[in-house]
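Its record is quoted verbatim for completeness.
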Amino acid sequence: MTLPPPGDIAIVVAGALAAGFVNGLSGTGYALVALGFWLQAMSPLTAAPLTALCGVAGHIQSLPRIWSGVRWQRLWPMLVAGIAGVPLGTLLLDHVKPNPLKMGVGLLLIVYSGWMAFVRRPPIVTGGGRPADAVVGLIGGVMGGMASLSGPAPAIWAQLRGFGKDEQRGVNQPFNMSVLFLALISAGIAGFLDRTFLIWAAITVPTTLIGAKIGLALYGRINDVQFRRVLLALLMLSGLTLVATSLI
């Protein structure tokens, strides 16, 4: 078995550690961090399913810690709609130009996170019930199928619902884990899980779990306000990254 060059391994390990830490701390943002490193060392066809695999592994590791925040009666409408939205988003790929999509979503995230960072009393949405939750889940699933952007919609919605940090992760993590798992299965069916993928998986999964464990330990030390700030910073970074990549 031929290993990748040492320089590439170092870049990928650094990305897995950083992304695992962010995912363990916030419950989201794995692909955003990892791809910034990994695309320097591997093709997108390998990097995309690899982020899905490592993201799922990190979510599974941290599920016992945030399980108390899972409320199935509020989660299942989002989850069912999100899973249904993934193949729909994949079908829409041929009809939507990626750069305008990235630009629009990026600007939305920048405006939202900037506004929420300065308001004293964040708005809380109490109406809509399960149908509104399902619409948000569908949006997240479609965006996940189109551009691997399943995270922002449920993250924003959980904040607007006024959930605490455990409740936010109780929505975000099972949702993102399910969408990523579905994306991984799709990649396997498409034949992308080749020998190169397996070599990188053997390197990145353990490294991701180490980073996620450190992030999860820090998560236990922050309060709801600090968690909100962390999540808003990630949403802002995600928006800036999307806008920047849409201009290339």
About this structure: The chain has one domain: 6-246.
